[in-house]
Amino acid sequence: MNKKELTDSFVEQLSNLQAKTDKDELRNILIFPAEGILNLSGWHILRFLSDSLGNKLESPIVFISFSAGVLGAIAAAQMWQIQGGTVKAFIAIDGWGVPLFGNFPIHRLSHDHFTHWTSAILGIGEDNFYADPPVDHLSMWRSPQAVQGYWVNQLTRFSHTQIYLNAFEFLDLILKRYN
Q1: Interstrand relation of 87-93 and 106-110 (parallel, antiparallel or unpaired)
Q2: pTM
Q3: What residues are paired with 126 via a beta bridge?
Q4: Cα 99 from Cα 5, distance rounded (Å)
Q5: CB under 8 Å to 46, separation ≥6 — which residues?
Q6: Three-class DSSP labels, 10-76
């Protein structure tokens, strides 16, 4: 699968999930159309959002980003908020090495325990997920329903009472929180 097919597959799974949980209202899913280096540009992502939403800053947004695209998405989320927009939540899927800070809820999903804990120093956020057993990087985007792991939150991150589920179930729980 190429990058576009991976994203289309992820969005299709997300849409199916929304259709099951939001029978009356299917949320809009916007996909930043550029690939390559533009995914790293918060300004380009912000411009895309403004064009797509008609500069409706009152539109609350949940960002979901993957890999290197996390860098551009977190910058766009911060700029959206600075301009007066509402960021309901930011979800970073395997954005290893990207500092995640903002005045909005942040969640990380990581493909292994090492990535999860080494990213924590760059912003742990609230509820997070890491794969166990570890999976390859693309599995988090290609087939999150097949990735098993642990839900870690502020209360359970140092205990042995973490919840075991798959990445898609975790994502579903997080998205329902911001419905």
Answers
A1: parallel
A2: 0.90
A3: none
A4: 27
A5: 75, 76, 79, 80, 83
A6: HHHHHHHHHHHHCCCCCCCCCCCCCCHHHHHCHHHHHHHHHHHHCCCCCCCEEEEEECCHHHHHHHH
CA distance 81 to 174: 20
Q: Which of 106, 113, 78, 103 is nearest to 92 (CA)?
A: 106
Tell me how far CA of residue 174 lies from CA of 91, 171, 179, in angstroms.
9, 5, 9
Q: Which residue has the tokens 């009356």?
A: 24
Question: What length does the chain have?
Answer: 179
CB contact set of 49 (below 8 Å; sequence gap of 6+):
30, 61, 76, 80
> pLDDT (tens digit, 9 = 90+) per residue, 96-147?
889 999 999 999 999 999 999 888 888 877 899 999 999 999 999 988 999 9
Q: E strand or H helix at 131, and its extent?
A: strand 128-131
State how far the alpha carbon of 58 is from the alpha carbons of 47, 54, 87, 101, in Å: 16, 11, 10, 21
pLDDT digits (tens, 9 = 90+) for 20-78: 655 444 467 888 988 789 989 999 999 999 888 876 777 789 999 999 999 999 999 99
Of 123, 52, 49, the residue nearest 81 (C-alpha):
49
